[in-house]
Amino acid sequence: MEIVKLVTHNTTLNGRDTIHHWSWTSDMPLECATHYVGIRCYIDDPQFSGRKEWSDWSPLKNISWSPDSQTKVFPQDRVLLVGSDITVCCVTQEEVLSAQIGSTYCPLIHLDGKNVAIKIRNISASESSGTNVVFSVEDNMFGTVIFAGYPPDIPQKLNCETYDLKEIICTWNPGRPTFLVGPRNTSYTLFESFSGKYVRFKRVELPTNESYQLFFQMLPNQEIYNFTLNARNPLGQSESTLLVNITEKVHPHIPTSIKVKDISSTAVTLSWHLPGSFAKIKLLCQIEINKTNSVHELRNVTMKGIENSSYLAAVDKLNPYTIYTFRIRCCTDPFWKWSKWSNEKQYLTTEAIPSKGPDTWREWSSDGKNLIIYWKPLPINEANGKILSYNVSCSSDEETQSLSEIPDPQHKAEIQLDKSDYIISVVAKNSVGSSPPSKIASMEIPNDDLKIEQAVGMGNGILLTWNYDPNVTCDYVIKWCNSSRSEPCLMDWKKVPSNSTETVIESDQFRPGVRYNFFVYGCRNQGYQLLRSIIGYVEELAPVVAPNFTVEDTSADSILVKWEEIPVEELRGFLRGYLFYFEKGERDTSKMRVLESGRSDIKVKNITDISQKTLRIADLQGKTSYHLVLRAYTDGGMGPEKSMFVVTKENSVALIIAILIPVAVAVIVGVVTSILCYRKREWIKETFYPDIPNPENCKALQFQKSVCEGNSALKTLEMNPCTPNNVEVLETRSTVPKIEDTEIISPVAERPEDNTDVQPENHVVVSYCPPVIEEEIVNPGADEAGGASQVIYIDIQSMYQPQAKPEEEPKNDPAAGTGYKPQMHLLVTSTVEDLATDDLDKSAGYRPQANVNTWNLVSPDSPRSTDSNSEIVSFGSPCSINSRQFLIPPKDEDSPKSNGGGWSFTNFFQNKPND
C-alpha cells in the first residue's frame, strides 16, 4: 500500500453532530486500483488546556469502483487543460503489450494483476477530434480519447448596433481559440440587465478568430441597453459588458430601388428605398454623380427619417443631353457609419438648344476660286443634344446667300466666291433648336512683315508663344498641317483666348520626325491676320537617307563635289549641317570603318552652312584614289552615309615641269660648258691635245748624205742662224704626267704651301732642232751622233742626278768628255756656272750660240728650290739638239707671268693671254 495523498482539512466544531465533506480527485482512476481512506483529528484550540496530539487513524475505508465490463481504459473522454498531467490505466485480464498516446509510446506502470497504467505529462492541445490513447494486447486494442484545450477567452471588440432600429446586432471576437469543439465548444449568452432578457449563441464548428454575432430584438421605447456577454466551456468561463444608446449606433442598410425622373434638361429627381424605421432620427444621404470623361461629383442631402422607408431628392445643375451615373449611400445624424453604396443608376438628360456655334475655319482652294468652310463637331456640353444638320450662309454688304442644310456628320462646305470680303456664318441644329451663328471673314488681313520660324516640341506636343497684341479682339487661332501635304494645308486648328500669349499644341496625329507647319492668326472684327509662321517637329530624329552627291569636277589636286537636298519627309528634323569624310583608299580596301573615331588619316569637314551644296576638296595628290563619304545630321542624330570612290587626274603640269627642269638644267649646263670650252679652247687643246712637232719639218736634222753615210772626216757642226719655229708653251699643273715647256724642275723642288705630299712628276722636254748647216768638222762623236732627224724627248729627272757635295764636285770634270753632250747635267749654282763655262770653252766640241748668263733663270717657268742654296734652272723653251739657244724669244717683262706649274679648277675660269 502506498500513500498517494495526505491532506489537512480545517473545520470548526459547533458541539453538535455535523457531517463534514471533503472531495479529492485521484490521479489514478478509481477503476484502476483500490483506494483506501483514513481520517485522524487534532484539536487546535488555544483555550483547550489538555494535551494536544493527533488521534489514531480510523479504520481504512475501502473505496472500490466496479468497472463496466465493456470499458477497459480509464478515464474515458476526459477534457483537460493544456499542460496538465494525467494517468491512464487499462483494466484487463490479458497481458498488455504496449501503450501509446498519439504516435508516442509510453512506459507501462504495472498495477494489480494484469492491470497497467501510463503517466502523461504536460499534454499539448488536441486536434479537433481529440488525442487517442491506445493499449495493445495480443489480439485486441483498447483505448480512450483525451481533449486538451483552453478555457474561453474574454470576448473582444464587443459592439452592438442596429441597421433599422428594429433589431440590435452585437458582434465580438472570441479571442484565443480553445481547441475544443462539439459538445465541449464554448457557448455564449448575451444578457441585457435593464430588461432581464437574454439570448444564447452556440457554434458546433471549430471556432476561429472570426467575428461572432447575436441578434437582440429592440424593446419599445428603450434606447439605452446594458449588455453582458458570458462565454463558457468545460474548462472555464469569461464575460464582457457594453452600455450603448442604440439611436446613436445606427448603420443603415444599402439603399435600393433607385429611380430617376426628369424635371428639366438640367435637373432630375432621385428616389430610393431605405429599409428601417427612422422616424425619430435624421438621415444624411450622399449622391455621387458621374459623367463620361469627368471627375465624379458628390452632393450631400439631409432629410428627416420616415416610417415607410421611401426617400426623394432633387439633383440640378446638370448638362442637357448628357449621360449621368448616380449612386447613393446614407447615414444617421449624428454620424456613426455610412451604409454601403447602392448600385449605379445611369440616366440621359433631355436635349436643349445648342449653347454655342461650331468652331469654324476657312481655306481657299488651290485655284483660288472656291472658299472651303470647315467646322468642328460641337462637344456634348455645348451641343445639348444630337446635332441633325448645319446651315451655312455668306453675306456681304449687298446680299446674303444661304446654302442648303448640310447633314451631320459632314463638317465641310465649299462656296464659289470672288475675292470680295464676305462674312461666313455656320449654325448647328438639333431637335430643340439652332445654335448661335459662328462667323468668320472670307479674306485674311495682309501682313507683309512675316518671317518663317522654327520650333521643336516636347515629344507629344509643341509649345508656341507670341507677343501680346492689343489689336486682337476676338481670339487667336493656331492652324497646323503636315508640311508634305498639298494645298489647302489644314490638319486641325485651335482657338485660344485673346489674352493668351502661349499654348501647347497636342494631337494624337503628331508623329516624331514629321515636319508640321504652324500658323498663328489674330482675330480683328471676325477677320484674321497671320501673325507668325512656324515650321517645327514635336520630336526630331536622325535622317533616314544620305544626301545624293556627285563629283562635278576632278583635277590633279582637287575634287569638286555637289549634292542634292534631302526631302523633308526623309530629313525628319531641322538640317544642321553635313559631315564630309575623305581618305585615301581603293574600293574594297578602304579602312574607313568608324568615322567618328578621330583617326588622323581620315579628314573631316563640317559644313554648317546648310545652303551650301558644293564643296571643293583641295591639296590632294594626283592620280590617287580617294574614298568620299557624306552624311547629314540634325539635332536628332546623324544620318546614314553615302560613299563614293574617286581617282584624281594625273598632274600634267608637274609632269611637264619634272621633264623640263632636267632638260633645262642639262641645256644650261651644256651651254655654259660650251661657252667655257670655247673660251678656253686653246688651253684645253694644249692641256689635253698638245701639238707634237713633226721631226720631218726640223731642218736641224737634215744632214748631208756623207754625214748619214758616216763620213769619218766629219767635223764639228758649225751653227748658222736659222729662223726658229714659233712654239707656244703653256704651263699647267697636274698630278698626272703631261707634256710641258722646256722647264727643268729640280728633284728638290719647292713643296706646296699646304705641306701636302706631292709625288714626283716625270717632265718631258721637247727639244726642237733648227736646220743644220753642213760643215766638215771633225767630231769624234760623229759616229754616235749620226742618224736620222728626230725630236729627242729627254726625261727631266734623268738630267738631274743627285748632286754631289761641294768637296766631291772636282771629281766630276765636265770637260773630261769631248764632243757635244746635249743631255748633260747642268749645275745651277753660280760657282758651277762659272766652272761649266770655263770647261765648255776649253772643250773642242759644240759651244752655245748665246750667252747663257742672259737666260732668265727666275722666270715664272723656272721655279726656284727653297730647300737648297742653289737655283735650279728650267728651260722654258725648246732648244736645238746641238745648242742651248732658245727657239722662242725671251718674254717681255710686261707680258703676264704664269702662276706656276700645273692647273686647277679656278684656272679653268681664268682667261689666258692671247685668248
TrEMBL record:
Keywords in alphabetical order:
Cell membrane, Disulfide bond, Glycoprotein, Membrane, Phosphoprotein, Receptor, Repeat, Signal, Transmembrane, Transmembrane helix
CDD domains according to UniProt: FN3 (cd00063)
Residue limits of the Fibronectin type-III domain?
154-253, 254-353, 357-448, 543-652
| Transmembrane stretches, start-end | 653-678
One cellular component (GO) term of this entry: receptor complex
Question: Bias regions of kind Polar residues — which residues?
Answer: 853-885, 904-915
Region feature Disordered, mapped onto this chain: 853-915
**Subunit record text:** Heterodimer composed of LIFR and IL6ST. The heterodimer formed by LIFR and IL6ST interacts with the complex formed by CNTF and CNTFR.
Function according to Swiss-Prot or TrEMBL: Signal-transducing molecule. May have a common pathway with IL6ST. The soluble form inhibits the biological activity of LIF by blocking its binding to receptors on target cells.
Could you tell me which PANTHER family the record lists for this protein?
CYTOKINE RECEPTOR, LEUKEMIA INHIBITORY FACTOR RECEPTOR
Protein name (Swiss-Prot/TrEMBL): Leukemia inhibitory factor receptor
Q: Which organism is it from?
A: Delphinapterus leucas (Beluga whale)
Q: Which lineage is the organism of this entry classified under, starting from the top rank?
A: Eukaryota, Metazoa, Chordata, Craniata, Vertebrata
Q: Which gene encodes it?
A: LIFR
